[in-house]
Write a structure and sequence with these properties.
Helices cover 52% and strands 3% of the residues. The protein is mainly alpha-helical. It has a two-stranded antiparallel sheet. 14% of the residues are buried. The structure holds zinc ion.
């Protein structure tokens, strides 16, 4: 089961889809910023799938930048979710009559729907 579809609770109360998704990307951001930066000496380099030097350089570049790139992408997701959130917070499961704080479209707005679809 993907982590974004797992039910989550806060103090025994079921979180809204928005709160659950925001919590997930905030946890990804936290884990990536707290992770030790990768260097070949820290945890090594997985075996290459091909013997090509160019592919190996690509692998090294990926691992070397992954921590910062994951943190950046998770930060973008957090910012987008904070921008596109439902107005009011009294009834997190109620969507009728609510609007997005940013785009003012009916909640859930298309931006949140797309983020949810892509991460879910
Ligand atoms: Zn919106």
């Amino acid at each position: 089961m993907p982590p974004f579809t797992r039910p989550a609770t806060r103090r025994g109360r079921r979180l809204s889809d928005h709160a659950r998704l925001l919590q997930c990307v905030q946890q990804i951001l936290e884990r990536s910023t707290q992770a030790v930066p990768w260097e070949p000496e820290t945890v090594g380099l997985p075996d290459a799938r091909s013997g090509g030097a160019l592919a190996r350089i690509n692998d090294v570049a990926f691992y070397a930048n992954a921590r910062n790139e994951v943190a950046t992408l998770a930060g973008v997701c957090v910012d987008l979710l904070l921008l596109h959130s439902p107005d009011g917070s009294e009834q997190p499961d109620q969507t009728a009559g609510r609007r997005c704080r940013s785009c003012r479209l009916a909640w859930p707005c298309p931006t949140f729907g797309e983020i949810s679809r892509l991460l879910g």
